[in-house]
Amino acid sequence: VAHCKGFFFCGQEPFVADEYIERLAWRTPGGGSRGGEAFDPKRLLEEFVNHIQELQVMDERIQRKVEKLEQQCQKEAKEFAKKVQELQKSNQVAFQHFQELDEHISYVATKVCHLGDQLEGVNTPRQRAVEAQKLMKYFNEFLDGELKSDVFTNSEKIKEAADIIQKLHLIAQELPFDSLMGFCCYPLSSPGKYHDLECQLIQEFTSAQRRGEISRMREVAAVLLHFKGYSHCVDVYIKQCQEGAFLRNDVFEDAAILCQRVNKQVGEIFSNPETVLAKLIQNIFEVKLQSYVKDQLEEHRKSDAEQYLKNLYDLYTRTTNLSSKLMEFNLGTDKQTFLSKLIKAIFISYLENYIEVEIGYLKSRSAMILQRYYDSKNHQKRSIGTGGIQDLKERLRQRTNLPLGPSIDTHGETFLSQEVVVNLLQETKQAFERCHRLSDPSDLPKNAFRIFSMLVEFLCTEHIDYALETGLAGIPSSDSKNANLYFLDVVHQANTIFHLFDKQFNDHLMPLISSSPKLSECLQKKKDIIEQMEVKLDMGIDTLNCMIGQMKHILAAEQKKTDFKPEDENNVLIQYTNACVKVCGYVRKQVEKIRNSMDGKNVDTVLMELGVRFHRLIYEHLQQYSYSCMGGMLAICDVAEYRKCAKDFKIALVLQLFDTLHALCNLLVVAPDNLKQVCSGEQLANLDKNILHSFVQLRVDYRSARLARHFS
């Protein structure tokens, strides 16, 4: 039973019936769980019945205990509820007492305040009377001319003495001088003693500042706050702060360090630190910085515009950077306006005519860069043709003479220089940066447009446009021998330079004018420049005539009549003629040169024009010869090679023209019986019959009756 109780009420593990029965059977003799024992079911049954009875007794006992505990719990709950009700009643009584006490305290406090007011009403006149008595005593000492009180003789009580003299001075000033009392008080109303004490206080403040005694400085400044000389005290403080502060060459860094140091100190000394710090900054700007700026700028203002502009930009930038640092300090309500006025006061005389100096310098500098370049080439600039875009278009339409007159020899010089361009763009970039910094916001777009106009004048007109005009004038005539086509080099360099110009337009000019009406003017000006240059590039199409002329010279010099009508038809060892080889080599070089010189749609436009003219040249050239059967085969080989060359153009029309020409050359070798079939083929069916006839007539056997009959 004890074991059962211990096992059954064990709270450490959950009760498992199977384990409990197993363990009970194992402990029962004859239960059959231990080895070597005979199983006795009756004994086991008796043991189980006994245990069941014990468990029932235990259950009844526990049930009675539970009922007892429930009754006890109900009893205690009733007692607790009763106690809670009693506590609530006590709490209500205490709350009522608290309210009564609070009302009583309020009543007493009101009485005390009323009593305090009455005492104050009595004490204040008494204190004033005492102070008036003391002032009268000190007043008598002043009238007697002998200051015997300790407050006047003890230097450590200068604060009390200052307070007394300040009050006596104010009283004396209110009395009329023509009265007896006013006459007697004249020594007090006169600035003598008042001024002496003021000077003494300022001297004491100065000495304390030199000794670094912040607490003494604060004490004296508080006394001087009610004196007229308080501003002089601030001036002395500002002056002494700057002693030894500007020893380095960088006045701006020295000023920033000084203001940072004073900002930490001024709040511990003065009751109005923001006013004192603002006055220090104003003094630095109006004295130190203005003097420094004047010395730096006036030295170069009339003699060296470049250095003057660099110094102006640098000084203005460093001043505004200093202003940005000072914005961190407390300088009052509108510190932005305050600092802006200080900067404007320093630079106003220099900024008023800044843009005129900038334009003047940029103009002279740009002209010098160009002239130095042309001098290095021993070249005297020629006057170029003037006129608008419409005039150029008319010249292009009519193919009139170029404005520079007859063709001139440029000796391979393009008169375009990357170095010159870089220098001009660099000068303009610096001018844009200065303009952005130094121009008034309302004048910024206008000033930027003027700088852009200078760049257009010297880079686009005086340099690029002049080189294009010179290149056009240097284009040789179409019948010139060994002509050098330098105009394509001019086009290539001009194209590269204009990309640099366009980059500067987007990077440096656009941000300055993007939100102003000047944007449309600049874009229009740029558009006009581009259109004008494109028109002149179109005028350079005469270069293609020179190319065709060179091809004619090659063909005339290298092509022989015997090439297409060899004496020995059975002994032809070449695949294509020497003239074809040289022409194709020349054309490939020119195509590559055109691709390197131009970009975009201009490449396709020029190559198409060249391809069409190249086809016309070969077509007319082939019309000049008679062809035997083997000569016709050689002509087909030549045209096939020309067609390979035409593929380099990458223009569909050009390739189509040479395909057709190749098909026409087949008429030179096809058997007479097959002529009609070939002429009705896909590539020749749409051609005019006269063209087909003209090629058939080139055959040496054309006059034979058989051939004429088949073609008729």
From TrEMBL:
Q: What's the protein called, per UniProt?
A: Exocyst complex component 5
Which residues are in the Exocyst complex component Sec10-like alpha-helical bundle domain? 160-711
Keywords from the named record: Coiled coil, Exocytosis, Transport
Q: Where is the Exocyst complex component Sec10 N-terminal domain?
A: 41-149
Q: Which residues form a coiled coil?
A: 52-90
Q: Which Pfam families match?
A: Sec10_HB (PF07393), Sec10_N (PF20667)
Transmembrane stretches in the record are none
Q: Which GO terms describe its biological process?
A: exocytosis; Golgi to plasma membrane transport
Give the CC-aspect GO terms: exocyst
Q: Tell me its family.
A: Belongs to the SEC10 family.
